[in-house]
Inverse folding.
């Protein structure tokens, strides 16, 4: 387990760690000169049972709260330190609030400097601490009365730590380690340290530096300063990274399983504004503290105009820099000036898009469903375009796994509610096409891709039509799509015009005619219909009867049963046509997949 210190500046946190472990974590010259902790300190603590706890010592000064949060992000439990002579102080309260926001669930109330007060004042201090933590995660926590100077209570504190439960962390989730220190070690290269948030990492594995996305290999792992073959969630860990410069892994960066963690600028989150935080309205700016990283962000309450003391609800964080995170991560909001802790909560949707005012009402119930583990809500929020299969799986896995929601179209998953709307849009577009083109047997597939259907990528749009054809809700008319109940209905004048055109074109055979002079208001639509039915076609600018073309195809296919190639001379013998007429017909045969040009001759096109 990882146990951290917390509490007001100069309340004996570092001295307590030194008394427990014999290690002085104030190693910087300025720390020793000023007598206060400035940076995070880490050391293992061997407990009586043989368990090993990782101790994290955090600074208590009000100007170093960000550093404190970086240390608290990996804690399983905390030793909340309160000096017996001073009692509860401002950073005692602030650290307690932050620890609650960070989701720390266990801890010990540690009275320090007990040798500096009489028994009566000591008892008052204990009562004050208990009163301060009432209603928090430390309500009812054990109390240890200690003195680093005399050794009072140190052995008892070790026993209390040893009796703490094992804090389970998820080793099946993607590996994530927030970097709290990075340094170069001669002969080894870059070493990063941190507390593993989730997952398991084996020596030699490939990891991703986030943000940035560079992939590198691990060439050494230490847990509690001992070389190991793997590190798992909850372990204080040092990683030796191959071929990486220290500047690439500053505090606030992450070491993650490749491709497992998004790096968003826009995140939706559950938020609690602390009861003693100021009311904020208008343009709300804050610093987001998450893991060991901090980024500036604009805070947009969803469903509220302002943040009032004690308010709880959903917000959108619009960050100035990427914030690598997953759903369920804890975060803290701090005000830049004056520097105060505002609140914090749980990140809900790191794949969010900017929510405009008109979209808030729809976003809130979907986010609530995501919080409850409803994976279909991810797809509903993604809209009619849905999500790639891999994206859906990543989101389901971050919720603990389960069935993949939605229906698959092409490479994407679509929510049921959006698929119903897309199908309705397809049928509406088809009905509108038939109404506008009553003499056309069916619609070209691309002509139907309008309105809502434009949201679908082309592959998925075509898959939607294929699925409708498979289920029999639409039909094919040649290569065109038609409604099941649609038929071309010809009036007597239409029929008479078609008969007249047939009578003019048929006698011309393969020579065809230049123009069709018959006049009719629906002339172009009727010509299109006749072409679709195969009654005639245009070849080299001349109109040729379909029956003549069908006969030509049969002759050419018969030719290839006894010949390997068809040259211009052979085609002339086959048809009796001049070169002027023959060449367009040969090109027409090529276009229909009957023949294929090879140099100056034709060969039979392979069967599709």
């Amino acid at each position: 387990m990882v146990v951290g210190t917390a509490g007001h500046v100069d309340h004996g946190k570092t001295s307590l760690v030194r008394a427990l472990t014999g290690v002085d974590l104030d190693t910087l010259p300025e720390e020793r000169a000023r007598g206060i902790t400035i940076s995070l300190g880490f050391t293992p603590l061997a407990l009586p049972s043989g368990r090993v706890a990782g101790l994290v010592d955090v600074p208590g000064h009000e100007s170093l709260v960000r550093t404190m949060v970086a240390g608290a992000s990996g804690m399983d439990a905390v030793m909340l330190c309160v000096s017996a002579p001073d009692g509860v102080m401002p950073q005692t309260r602030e650290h307690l609030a932050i620890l609650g926001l960070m989701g720390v669930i266990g801890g010990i109330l540690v009275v320090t400097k007990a040798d500096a007060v009489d028994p009566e004042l000591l008892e008052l201090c204990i009562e004050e601490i208990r009163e301060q933590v009432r209603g928090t995660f430390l309500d009812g926590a054990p109390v240890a009365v200690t003195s680093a100077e005399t050794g009072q209570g140190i052995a008892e504190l070790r026993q209390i730590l040893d009796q703490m439960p094992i804090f389970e962390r998820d080793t099946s989730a993607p590996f994530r380690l927030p970097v709290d220190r990075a340094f170069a070690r001669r002969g080894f290269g870059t070493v990063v340290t941190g507390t593993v948030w989730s997952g398991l990492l084996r020596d030699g594995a490939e990891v991703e530096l986030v943000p940035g996305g560079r992939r590198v290999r691990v060439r050494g792992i230490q847990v509690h300063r001992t070389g190991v073959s793997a590190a798992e969630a909850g372990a204080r860990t040092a990683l030796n990274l191959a071929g990486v410069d220290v500047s690439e892994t500053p505090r606030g960066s992450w070491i993650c399983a490749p491709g497992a963690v998004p790096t968003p600028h826009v995140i939706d989150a559950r938020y609690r504004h602390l009861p003693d935080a100021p009311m904020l309205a208008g343009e709300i700016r804050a610093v987001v503290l998450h893991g060991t990283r901090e980024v500036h962000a604009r805070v947009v309450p969803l469903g509220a105009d302002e943040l009032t003391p004690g308010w709880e609800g959903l917000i959108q964080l619009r960050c100035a820099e990427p914030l690598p995170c997953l759903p369920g991560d804890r975060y803290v909001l701090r005000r830049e000036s004056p520097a105060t802790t505002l609140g914090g909560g749980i990140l809900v949707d790191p794949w969010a898009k900017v929510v405009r005012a008109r979209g808030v009402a729809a976003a809130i119930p979907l986010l609530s469903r995501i919080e409850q583990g409803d994976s279909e809500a991810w797809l509903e929020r993604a809209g009619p375009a849905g999500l790639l299969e891999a994206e859906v799986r990543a989101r389901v896995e971050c919720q603990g796994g389960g069935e993949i929601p939605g229906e698959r179209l092409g490479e994407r998953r679509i929510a049921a509610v959006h698929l119903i709307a897309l199908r309705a849009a397809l049928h509406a577009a088809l009905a509108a096409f038939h109404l506008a083109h009553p003499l056309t047997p069916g619609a070209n597939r691309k002509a139907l891709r309008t309105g809502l259907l434009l949201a679908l990528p082309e592959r998925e749009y075509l898959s939607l039509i294929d699925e409708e054809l498979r289920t029999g809700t639409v039909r094919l008319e040649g290569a065109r799509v038609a409604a099941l109940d649609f038929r071309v209905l010809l009036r007597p004048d239409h029929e008479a015009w078609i008969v007249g055109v047939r009578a003019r074109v048929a006698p011309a055979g393969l020579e065809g005619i230049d123009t069709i002079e018959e006049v009719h208001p629906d002339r172009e639509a009727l010509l299109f219909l006749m072409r679709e039915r195969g009654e005639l076609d245009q070849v080299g600018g001349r109109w040729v009867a379909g029956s003549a073309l069908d006969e030509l195809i049969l002759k050419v296919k018969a030719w290839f049963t006894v010949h390997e190639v068809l040259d211009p001379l052979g085609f002339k013998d086959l048809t009796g046509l001049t070169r002027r007429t023959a060449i367009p017909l040969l090109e027409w045969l090529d276009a229909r997949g009957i023949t294929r040009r090879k140099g100056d001759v034709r060969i039979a096109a392979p069967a599709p």
